[in-house]
Amino acid sequence: MQYILATLAAGFLMLARPGFVQPVPSSVPDVRMTCQAGQAAARPGETLMVLCTLEIPEGFHVYWKSPGASGTPTEFQVEGTGGLLIGDTLYPRPSAFDDPAGRTYGYEGRTQFLVPVTVLEECPEGALAITVRAQWLACKKVCWRGEATRGIELKVSKDTVDDPISLFTQAIRCIPSALSDRPGTSMSLTDSEVEIRGSLGDLGLPSFIPVEVPGVILDEARISGDTSEFLVRIPYRLEPNNSLGVKPRIEGLLLFGDERHDPSFAFSMPAPPAEQGAGREDPVNRRNTP
Amino acid sequence: MNSLNLTTRLLAATVLLALGMPAMVAPAQESPVPKEPSPPAQDEEKADKEEKPVVAEVGKPAPNFALKDTKGKAHQLSGYVGNYVVLEWFNPGCPYCRGIYDKGVVEDIQKKIRQVDPEFVYLAINSTANQPKEFIIMQSDEFLEKQDMSEIPVLLDYDGVVGRLYEARTTPHMFVIDPEGKLIYSGAISDDDRFDKNDKATNYVINAVRSSVSRTDVAPSTVRPWGCKVKYDDGGKGRKPRGRSPGRKP
């Protein structure tokens, strides 16, 4: 017995000895993607949604369109055999992840993305092949780039009367609405600050997630409120030299509640030209912190 | 029975000792030379105040640091004044970091910057701390050997002090320092985070050096870096999920 125990102990010490280098194990995340059209058939001129679902393994996350301190956006490229107009991907409300390297925004678990697709008037009737290619970065202790391509077949017919598939309702609920559509909410822009005021609902004060736009620096939002109204103040400044040719816009999300399907609202407004003094242009190109 | 108890105790002690050993393992590289600068507190009252630590800022002198590379050689940033210095936050475990080597982006930087400064210095800094230090050293050296770029020194920043000094967020996160020691660029290596633009990609690091050489404004001087997050040592706390409402006030 003593010999067995001594051998076990010696083996254990061998594993722990200096120079015995063993990496922390990590496995390739099995992110699964499925895609489907919102309806089996569409008329020329009609807009439908393509729904792509990512099943992200436990512990991993992929990134929102504006990933924050690190990461790269999850992206969908949709192509058709002809006669399609592809809209911008509709990203669901993201979650935030804090880490020593900074805060990032993204998704865990089952996540659904929508891509609007319009069948052009001149699109010939018959079967239309749609291809969706997605790329993502899935991170846990280690990050893995992933991609998948899926094909969808859509029938184009002038005579079709096809209702959207009901499961899309759930996906649409998680997509942020336009802030301008929220009753009792107003937004104003000063030379250095965005101010959003609105009525307070049952879910309490909102939180804010910035959308990163090159050359526009959004500082930490100040959020306050009383029993009936909230006030969000977001200081900003412009760095025209770092705009990469993109027109400066101030963009972000206001989130109410904690759940994925709780209300969230997106806003985007053009920043006034820096020459007019708006946004406190920073001449020394200060850091582009998120 | 007594002898079994003694053996069990010995075994338990051995296991406990073994479990504690990884933290005591002496790395191939001894403790780094003291890092600088570390601003001393003027007085207790001042130290009590919440002051933002000194961090690298574009347009200002690059903070000095001293680190040892995987071969044990000491590097001090101030020792490279007079030449352009490119810092790359490096982790061969990150697919984006591997990508910039596989696609020849780093090689291109080396080639093009040498045309304007034959003595320019390229330093890869590894702040990865999610693996044993010995593994980080082995993985870094093996990767660069396979790339036939083992002349690039990999500086070990296992405690993340220099990474935090430069606010390095991703691998790769690039910094360009001019011959006067001023930080002139911070951010992405290029605009090709999908590695599909090939010759049409804009390399921000090369552009920054060229602009500096021609005495024109470096623009852009700051671009959001893409890639994997820097895997800093978090004291074993792991990722801190914030639920679904970042920045929410009570």
Descriptors for this entry?
heterodimer; A: 290 residues; mainly beta; Immunoglobulin-like; 2 domains; 5-stranded antiparallel β-sheet; 4-stranded antiparallel β-sheet; 2 helices; 7% helix; disordered C terminus; B: 250 residues; alpha/beta; Glutaredoxin; 6-stranded mixed β-sheet; globular
Task: Describe the structure in your own words.
The complex is a heterodimer of chains A (about 290) and B (about 250). Chain A is mainly β. Chain A has two domains: about 30-175, Immunoglobulin-like (Sandwich), CATH 2.60.40; about 175-275, Immunoglobulin-like (Sandwich). Chain A is about 5% helix and about 45% strand. With about 250 residues, chain B is of the alpha/beta class. Helices cover about 30% and strands about 15% of the residues of chain B. Chain B is built from seven helices and eleven strands. Chain B has helices at about 1-25, 45-50, 95-100, 105-115, 135-145, 160-165, 205-215, and strands at about 65-70, 75, 85-90, 120-125, 155, 170, 175, 185, 220-225, 230, 240. In chain B, strand 1 and strand 2 (about 75) form a beta hairpin. In chain B, helix 4 (about 105-115) runs parallel beside helix 7 (about 205-215). The longest helix of chain B has 23 residues, at about 1-25. Chains A and B meet through helix 1, strand 7, strand 10, strand 11 and strand 15 of A and helix 1, helix 5, strand 9, strand 10 and strand 11 of B. Strand 7 of chain A pairs antiparallel with strand 11 (about 240) of chain B.
